[in-house]
Structures are given as structure tokens and as C-alpha cells.
Design brief:
This is SH2 domain-containing protein. It is a single chain. The protein contains three helices and twelve strands; from the N terminus they run ββββαβββββαβββα. Strands 4, 5, 6, 7, 8, 9 and 12 form a seven-stranded mixed beta sheet that branches. A three-stranded antiparallel beta sheet has the order 1-2-3, with no helix packed on it. The chain is of the alpha+beta class. The protein has helices at residues 50-60, 119-128, 155-158; strands at 8-11, 16-23, 27-33, 44-46, 65-70, 80-86, 89-98, 103-106, 115-116, 131-134, 144-147, 151-152. The radius of gyration is 16 Å and the shape is globular.
């Protein structure tokens, strides 16, 4: 077992991680990923629903706590979502993959387009520089918050591996 998580198993013969996770309502599933993907990080939750991740972050209630989940659209252009708790709200920020330059960016690209070489770089950057959080229900985009990513949500406290 790798990283002390029973649902993440290293398969050396195939050189990838096998992630075992519970997708609510679908039972246990398996998902393989290359070593360069985000799956080996403690902040990656995989294919959980937006609702399940939001509920877990609301229970934890710690500003700056976060997770990265698979985007429900499952497109290569928007593979992941960064989910952040701040100011008693949960924000879902799309992580886009820019095919042209093989980089990642946050959000829609309408308000700035800072690029990163990996999802890990995004997380590390926003531990030291605040992330701008825009309420998706605010059509004006005026109400913005900002916070640092402080700690990944403890998966074993909120999500059962079986």
C-alpha cells in the first residue's frame, strides 16, 4: 500500500497506481492513472460527486481546506475541479488543460489566464499566493473572495475507502 491509504495501491509491474474508490450509488470501481497524473496526491479525491465533496468540506469548516476531484464532464479540456472552502462557502473552480501549450489554468479564462505546468504547481502556488474565488451565482463577478490553500481535506475522516 502506498501513502497509508488502503484504497491506493501501487502496481509496479504496470508502473501505475490503481485507485479504488467508492463512487456513490455505483459501488466500488477501479481507475488507473500514469505516475505524472494527480492521483498520487493526498488532495486528489477522484470521481466523487460535487455534492459529496461540498458536504465534506462544509462539515470540516476550515478556510483554505481543499480537494481536487474529477470534473463531471470528463473532458480532456477540463479534467479536474479544485474545490475550496472559504467564508462558510464552497467554491468549485475548473482546472483546464490547455492542449496547445500542454499547461493547466484555473477557471474559465475570462478573468486572467495564469498558466501552470502541472496541477501540483497550481496547488503549490496557491499555498503561497491567494486564489481569487468568484461566486458562480453572482452574475456581475463583483463579489470576490480570496484565500490561500492551507490543507487538503482529510480523506479518511470524510470518505470511506470501502
Amino acid at each position: 500500500m502506498r501513502e497509508g491509504r488502503p484504497w491506493r495501491c501501487w502496481t509496479p509491474a504496470k508502473d501505475y497506481f490503481m485507485l479504488l474508490y467508492l463512487d456513490l450509488g455505483k459501488g466500488t470501481q477501479t481507475h488507473g492513472a500514469s505516475l505524472t497524473d494527480v492521483q498520487h496526491n493526498e488532495w486528489y479525491i477522484g470521481e466523487y460527486s460535487r455534492q459529496a465533496v461540498e458536504e465534506a468540506l462544509m462539515k470540516e469548516k476550515k478556510d483554505g481546506s481543499f480537494l481536487v476531484r474529477d470534473c463531471s464532464t470528463k473532458s480532456s479540456a477540463e479534467p479536474y475541479v479544485l474545490v475550496v472552502f472559504h467564508g462558510n462557502k464552497v467554491y468549485n473552480v475548473k482546472i483546464r488543460f490547455l492542449e496547445r501549450n500542454q499547461q493547466f489554468a484555473l477557471g474559465t479564462g475570462l478573468r486572467g489566464d495564469e498558466k501552470f505546468n502541472s496541477v501540483e504547481d497550481i496547488i503549490e502556488h496557491h499555498k503561497h499566493f491567494p486564489i481569487i474565488l468568484i461566486d458562480g451565482k453572482d452574475k456581475t463577478g463583483v463579489h470576490r473572495g480570496q484565500c490561500y490553500l492551507t490543507q487538503p481535506l482529510p480523506l479518511n475522516r470524510h470518505f470511506s475507502p470501502w
